[in-house]
Amino acid sequence: MAESPEGSLTPAQFEILQLLWEAERGLSAAEIWEAIRENRDVSRTTISNLVDRLEKRNWLVRSKEDGVFRYVPSIDREVAEGKLAAEFVGDFFNGSAANIVLSLLGSNQISTTELQRLKAILNESKSRKK
To answer: Per CATH, the architecture of 11-73 is what?
Structure first.
């Protein structure tokens, strides 16, 4: 069984994972670089270094296909987002999910649609716990 990913992610590393979650058969470092440089100026070396670090920390799995290394995430998007959210809440909101929601409500960062979605999620969670 593969080891769990280590550490947290920078926004640039998370951007790489987002690309890979969307790719059906993974991407090479060059393909990752090409996709990212469409939106911002970044060197190929920078992307290669980020990919290498992600692989060493078990966020990515590498396989060789037709002489090219292809990378895929070692973890599902939902699991990764949950891990990152838990770390964020722990680091900045004393481990309280309620505190982060209250902060968002107080800053008007949650739309009516998102509030309805949160209510539905809470109701579903309550039903599962009964």
So the answer is: Orthogonal Bundle (1.10)
